[in-house]
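hey so i finally got around to running the thing on that chain from the lab meeting. sorry it took forever, my laptop kept dying and i had to restart like 3 times. anyway pasting the input first so we r on the same page abt which one it is
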Amino acid sequence: MAKTTGRLVSLDIFRGLTIAFMIIVNTPGSWEYVYAPLRHAKWHGCTPTDLVFPFFLFIVGVSTFYSLKKYGNEFNSGSFIRILRRMLLIFAVGLFLAVFPRFVRDYSTLRILGVLQRIALAYGIGAIICLTVRRDFLWIITAVILLGYWGLLAFFGGADPYSLESNIVSEIDIAVLGTNHMYRGYGLPFEPEGLLSTVPAVATVIIGYFTGEMISKNPEGGRTVVKLLLLGAASAGLGYLWGIFFPINKPLWTSSYVLFTAGLAMVLLALIYLLADVIRFQKWGAFCLVFGTNAIFAYTLAGIWSRTMLNIKLTSGTDQVTLYQWIYQKIFVPVAGNMNGSLLFAITQVLIVWAVVLILYRKKIFIKL
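ok and heres what got predicted. didnt touch it at all, straight out
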């Protein structure tokens, strides 16, 4: 199997591709001008943008198998400390991004949860489950999680249990976190990275872990590709059919959404694995490989950079705008117009972050949390 610095090349390429797309969807020049595939579904449904987060959690699961190999993929003091340390560090970085750069603020209204916080919790819980449960039973645990979550939402969600206004997910977050510490982008307090909805996200990690083990233990690359393609297609198909009864929904992280997105992730990883690790054709993925070897750092850097631009104020005529707005309006709109300028702005942010991460890559510096 071809490796770079002892890593699974296809996994790094897939991770880098996901991070690059994540930065694009998170930093358009203007939220008023975004192409439909680069927007989240308003509620039910799944756009390409809705695949980014579950793909990354799936990748977390795959990489968890490889990162815990030195502990024998068993639950012991060494593996537990490693898992706990990484979980706390990722959660802390998420909180840092939530307050940056306004550290002097009213913390009574701070949003506690977020993307990195969910990654931390799903990773920590998922890793412990994978190391403490017999491999043959992981699918049973996954099924229990997904079916149990469906039952909780269906029976305790009110008259319309899968709606924004009436769901048990929101009720639990309000009770535990309080409305002041929740996301309000939907027009009312609702946390898309909430506590209860993190439970099915753990299943996404477990599926990824199982996939990582399958790749690692099967030396016949071609056969592994076929297995991944078949399992991925079956999972995505089952998730799609389940969506008829339990809608595919990212904010609620529904069980159908887990199977649908994990299946697609498995298929995409199989194709990248075929090219990068079986055929060993890797040059096409060089750009993504740079991102993939320092993924969390790249995501964090992108967040710091965009928040810095948003907090620098400039005068434009009689108006005061942020540096973020000024760059988009004065540089990208004249060149490409509103819509394409917004996309070009986002792509430029990817290139800026990539240039920084490239320096680390060339120096063989891989920042691990």
